[in-house]
Specification:
- The complex is a heterodimer of chains A (545) and B (568).
- Chain A is built from 18 helices and eleven strands.
- Chain A has 545 residues and is an alpha/beta fold.
- Chain A folds into three domains: 254 residues, Growth Hormone, Chain: A (Up-down Bundle); 33 residues, no CATH class; 242 residues, Rossmann fold.
- Chain A has a seven-stranded mixed beta sheet with strand order 7-6-5-8-9-11-10, with helices on both faces. A four-stranded antiparallel beta sheet of chain A has the order 1-2-3-4, with helices on one face.
- The relative contact order of chain A is 0.08.
- Chain B is an alpha/beta fold and 568 residues long.
- Among the domains of chain B are: 53 residues, no CATH class; 105 residues, Guanine Nucleotide Dissociation Inhibitor, domain 1 (Orthogonal Bundle), CATH 1.10.405.
- Helices cover 32% and strands 21% of the residues of chain B.
- Chain B has 19 helices and 21 strands.
- In chain B, the strands form five sheets. In chain B, strands 1-20-16-19-18-17-9-10 form an eight-stranded mixed beta sheet. In chain B, strands 2, 3, 12, 13, 14, 15 and 21 form a seven-stranded mixed beta sheet that branches. In chain B, strands 4-5 form a two-stranded antiparallel sheet.
- In chain B, α4 packs parallel to α19 and α14 crosses α18.
- At the A-B interface, α2, α4, α6, α8 and β1 of A face α1 and α2 of B.
Chain lengths: 545, 568
């Protein structure tokens, strides 16, 4: 913005003269001097900022709408339409503002800064806390900000008419208006959103609007009637925006808390998944929940039912297992149950996501839940893909087979995870299992996903394993299924380890009884080349009301 | 995923949220909009993607392999310097593609120790070579092998030796890890991906009527020993000859099969297997594509037999058929000379003489051999042979070859996939595209998450071979990249922001086109018959290029040479 382009001439002289007439008292500037006056820069810079802020709010609203409501073409189109129309209304309304133009301008700047700047944060929170009126509030805010932004430019132009000829005025103002739009349109996707995020971007530009207001306050301090009130309003807006800026993380986590019902105490995105841990507001250990990609993995209150059922029927049925392999289950809960057997000499925990095992071996709260199982000297953590790790193991002549293999993977909801439920995978499991060993697989709900459950059973049988299917009730999951597989027929154990809260030796056989609504249905084995399980699973869970 | 019953509304909702906690905070509502599965990527990248704002990335790359100049040395050859060395061998094999490697395998199997294989490129394998781009193994040409049918006993035997196949109770079983994993194929049509390649999405009843009629016509044409692989097992008769005499389009016109979706699909299949579309291949070839393998099943058609018996199983590897070619090449390493340009083959009464230019040293070696197996395309054979037969000269004139471009694109993070669409598959084809779509080189990996990969994009330029060859020679790398990206961009608007490297392989003469009249021609029949000391062994003899045909002709020529040598 080099205003030295317009050297001399009528316009320049006029600016200096009228500036002196109004508020500017710089005596150093003489008539006809070609040097640009700082005043000019300041006012045009504010046009630039005003235009930039106006576009930012529009982009932010469009982004939020398309992200939260979907259908980006529709959302962007309607948001831009609403916004532009509201700007037109604002421009029209500007005719009714007659006296005290600097004061009007100042107030509008503060309003735009406050409302526009807080809009992304407010919409975020709204989407989490009150999703139903979201659409109406969104368009209401877009309308409001649009009207205010529409008022800005006419007012700026009228403020500047005192200093500019119309020709120069229109040219300069519109140039900086469009220039501001260009800079922002480029910076928004490339710099602002990636580095600041949407909430902070909104707040930053709210602060810029406020800065323009402060500038106007200073420039027109001689003309303003309620100077103190204006100063207080500007300071208040700035403080609110700054506070929100500092608390942007908190705003984000409020929104997430709301989504998860409880307080989010840990959230991380790893290369493989989104890990969220929540805790009830009272802070009890047994109110902890783990979510992976939004799906509940355990609820501390009843996870003992799941993990006792997963581990003990196979372990106790084996007798005195020495070598145990756990695939998945990076939370260490299965390992906790496994370590209840004094016969166990080594536990190998294969978990793809190192963040999971690190988290559950370091956080005191989580270590209390898994009884420090991941820190046991008997346990070795391997952060690798289970499929590839088992395959590699076949080439190792020193690799010993396992007595027990606990398979605790996420449900087969997509083709990538579905590979871990195929004949190829179970054949690998079989080759790593000792002759008298048992593998146990968590196998989704035989009640809700009945055919999926029996597909896993058929898949295990297809590689020549004998199966012993069973199920247990886990309140936070519902009726849940497991399958023990091995070459030795399964026999119920005489005893179970001390201190179990759910399983007991006399009641264990009941779990192996399937009522008619979960009893076996014919199913095709799941192979890498057909992945029938993923389709069945998707259909069955998709039928839920 | 446990506990989905309780928290199903969260499924996929917060799951795909990425980015740091500070940047996150975009809750997602299930069932609204098409949310991407962008696990492992920042939410803001996802957001930019969502907005269609994909900052263009810089990518590197260049042309690879297939050194155009080498082949053209032969074309421009006008006599060589005096040979610096003279050497002898019992059998010289010219060409180290699948046919040449099969010929060497047959000789070795027959106990012949004294043979020599000459390969022009730096690595044997021909169209079945592979490479590594961005750290990922990927194919440079052929990339799969259908499980062999009843006539392809030789291939079945090879696969058994490589432990890919075994017979259990008289039934063939294949190594499931090497069979193409599910999901296998998808088609981008009408703004989304559908499962399978036959257009279904947005098609009207007329298309389905034509699908059913075509399925019936294929079934009717499929008599025993009519369409076989290898084609040498087929009993050629009047009916097949009549089909061979017309273009596939003429035949479709005569059958009044005009549904645009069916026409597109058949044209795609022909371009994919034969390098040229339905205007340029014979009706025999068009029907052979289906009748020789899995038939044609119209959607919704109840075909218990097709599901039970003919499930279209195929074997594939990250590096494509290079997996097979490299295994075939290993036992031949001692007797393979790469970078060897055979300049002249002259058949005498007692022996055959060859001039072989060793390209690295630029030394000319004069070889004498008892027998020569020309495992090279017929138009190349016509240039090599001092006295080509009239049939060979006719073949050089009348057997067209399709140029191909194969692009390997290294993608540094998974492309956005939209929910409700068919997921990333092994073979991904774009309806109406000039290309043939792409294959995911990491498809056979068992990693349980989406990640960086290499996409192998194919395009056949056989509809106008000479223009295609000209374009391959003249167009710079960047221009080809732009064409490939512009094509893929329709289905993957984010591809430009994720591509890091593009390597291009150009084949001027990738494969024979089974043009009308070629397969049934007298000249091709004559070239298939062994005579004298020089035998041809190449998929050109079948008028189309697949592993099974090349392997068949190679084995046969190798066996014949071994028998002749044993006889003395």
């Amino acid at each position: 913005m080099n205003s030295g382009d317009r050297e001399g001439g009528e316009g320049s002289g006029q600016i200096l003269r009228s500036a002196q007439d109004d508020t500017w008292t710089d005596a150093g500037a003489g008539d006809g001097a070609p040097a640009p006056h700082p005043m000019e820069l300041v006012l045009l810079a504010s046009v630039f900022v005003v235009a930039a802020c106006g576009l930012i709010y529009e982009l932010a609203a469009g982004t939020l709408a398309s992200y939260l409501l979907g259908d980006s073409v529709l959302q962007f189109s309607t948001i831009i339409g609403t916004y532009l129309f509201a700007m037109g209304v604002g421009s029209w309304l500007s005719r009714f503002l007659d006296y005290q133009l600097p004061a009007h301008f100042l107030r509008i700047e503060l309003l735009v800064g406050g409302v526009g700047g807080l809009m992304p944060a407010a919409l975020f929170l709204l989407s989490a806390y009150a999703p139903s009126p979201f659409r109406w509030v969104l368009y209401g805010m877009v309308w409001g900000v649009g009207v205010l932004v529409g008022l800005e430019i006419p007012l700026v132009m009228r403020l500047l008419t005192r200093q500019y000829a119309l020709k120069d005025l229109v040219s300069q103002v519109l140039t900086f208006d469009y220039l501001g739009a260009l800079v922002v349109a480029i910076a928004f996707p490339l710099l602002l959103v990636p580095y600041l995020g949407l909430i902070r971007t909104g707040l930053l530009f709210g602060l810029l609007n406020t800065a323009v207001a402060v500038l106007a306050l200073w420039l027109y301090r001689g003309q303003l009637i309620h100077l103190r009130a204006h100063v207080a309003a500007a300071a208040g807006t700035a403080v609110v925006l700054l506070a929100a800026f500092a608390g942007a993380d908190r705003i984000t986590s409020w929104a997430e808390d709301r989504f998860y019902a409880d307080h989010v105490i840990y959230a991380a995105t790893t290369p493989y998944q989104r890990i969220i841990i929540t805790q009830g507001h009272a802070g009890h250990d047994d109110s902890v929940r783990l979510f992976l990609n939004g799906n509940l993995q355990f609820y501390a209150h009843d996870e003992y039912r799941y993990h006792e059922s997963l581990v003990h029927p196979a372990m106790a049925g084996f007798g005195a297992p020495r070598r145990v392999l756990i695939l998945g289950g990076g939370d260490g809960m299965a390992a906790r149950e496994v370590l209840k057997y004094p016969s166990v000499e080594s536990v190998t925990e294969v978990e793809l996501d190192a963040n999971m095992t690190r988290l559950f071996s370091q956080q005191p709260l989580l270590r209390r839940l898994n009884h420090d199982s991941l820190l046991s000297p008997k346990l070795k953590v391997i952060n690798e893909d289970a499929f590839q790790w088992l395959q590699k193991r076949l080439d190792d002549p020193a690799a010993e087979p396992y007595d027990i293999i606990v398979i605790d993977f996420p449900d087969p909801s997509n083709f990538s995870i579905g590979k871990l439920y195929t004949t190829s995978f179970y054949a690998l499991v079989d080759r790593n299992l000792s002759a008298s060993g048992y593998a146990v697989v968590q196998t989704t709900s035989p009640l809700i996903a009945r055919k999926s459950y029996w597909t896993v059973a058929a898949t295990l049988e297809a590689v020549g394993l004998r199966i012993a299917p069973y199920h247990a009730h886990v309140p936070s999951f519902g009726e849940w299924g497991f399958i023990i597989a091995g070459h030795r027929p399964y026999h119920f154990p005489e005893t179970l380890p001390e201190g179990l809260r759910f399983l007991s030796a006399p009641t264990l056989p009941l779990l192996f009884d399937f009522p008619p609504d979960m009893s076996r249905v014919p199913a095709e084995p799941n192979r890498l080349s057909n992945q029938v399980l993923v389709q069945t699973f998707d259909a069955e869970w998709g039928q839920l009301p | 995923m446990k506990g989905r019953s309780r928290r199903r509304f969260l499924q996929g909702a917060l799951g795909a949220l990425g980015g740091s906690a500070a940047a996150a905070g975009l809750p997602r509502f299930p069932g609204r909009g098409n949310l991407q599965e962008d696990e492992g990527r920042g939410v803001w990248q996802g957001l930019l993607d969502r907005l269609g704002l994909h900052p263009k990335a810089d990518f590197s790359g260049g042309f690879v392999g297939q050194q155009v100049e080498r082949g053209h040395l032969l074309r421009d050859y006008r006599g060589a310097p005096a040979p610096s060395e003279r050497r002898r061998t019992s059998v010289a094999i010219v060409g180290g593609g699948i046919a040449g490697l099969a010929a060497a395998r047959a000789l070795q199997r027959a106990g012949i120790e004294d043979y020599q294989l000459f390969e022009l490129e730096d690595e044997a394998g021909g169209n079945s070579r592979g490479g590594v781009v961005g750290g990922y193994a990927c194919p440079w040409g052929a990339h799969y092998l259908p499980t062999p049918g009843p006539y392809a006993e030789d291939v079945a035997e090879l696969l058994t030796e490589y432990r890919l196949r075994r017979e259990v109770g008289g039934k063939a079983e294949y190594d499931e890890m090497q069979l193409c994993h599910s999901p296998q194929e998808r088609l981008y049509i009408a703004g989304g991906w559908q499962d399978g390649l036959l257009p279904v999405r947005g098609q009207d009843a007329a298309a389905f009527v034509d699908y059913r009629r075509f399925a019936e016509l294929v079934a009717a044409a499929n008599r025993p020993r009519a369409f076989t692989i290898p084609t040498a097992s087929s009993r050629w008769d009047e009916t097949l000859a009549a089909l061979d005499g017309q273009s596939f389009r003429q035949w479709l016109d005569a059958q009044q099969l005009g549904a645009p979706a069916l026409r597109w699909y058949l044209d795609y299949c022909c371009r994919d297997d034969y390098g040229a579309g339905i205007d340029h291949v014979s009706a025999w070839a068009g029907l052979h594509y289906f009748a020789s393998r899995h038939g044609f099943t119209a959607p919704g058609q109840d075909s218990a037999s097709s599901n039970e018996l003919d499930r279209d199983d195929l074997l594939t590897w990250p590096e494509g058929n290079a997996w097979l070619a490299r295994r075939l090449a290993v036992p031949q390493r001692e007797r393979t000379q790469t970078g060897a340009l055979v300049l002249r083959v002259e058949e005498g009464r007692q022996q055959v003489e060859l001039d072989v230019l060793d390209l690295p040293s630029r030394r000319l070696v004069h070889w004498t051999a008892q027998r020569v197996i020309l495992a090279a395309p017929l138009f190349v054979a016509a240039r090599l042979l001092a006295n080509p037969s009239s049939a060979l000269l006719e073949a050089a004139r009348s057997l067209p070859h399709a140029p191909w471009l194969v692009a390997n694109l290294h993608i540094d993070s998974p492309l956005i996939e939209h929910q409700g669409n068919a997921p990333l598959s092994w073979d991904n084809v774009l309806y109406g595209s000039p290309g043939l779509g792409y294959v995911d080189a990491m498809h056979q990996s068992t990693r349980p998450y989406a990640d960086a990969t290499v996409l192998t994009y194919y395009t056949a330029l056989g509809n106008d071979p000479s223009a295609g060859r000209h374009a391959l020679l003249e167009r710079p790398w960047a221009q080809w990249c732009e064409m490939v990206l512009a094509d893929l961009e329709q289905a993957h608007p984010d591809i430009r922001s994720k591509v890091r490297r593009i390597e291009l392989m150009r084949y001027g003469h990738a494969m024979a086109i089974p043009a009308p009249g070629v397969r049934g021609s007298a000249w091709l029949a004559a070239l298939r018959e062994p005579r004298g000391r020089v035998a041809h062994a190449h998929s050109d003899l079948s008028a189309y290029s697949v592993f099974e045909e090349a392997y068949h002709w190679g084995l046969r020529a190798g066996d014949a040479a071994a028998v002749a040598l044993h006889r003395g």
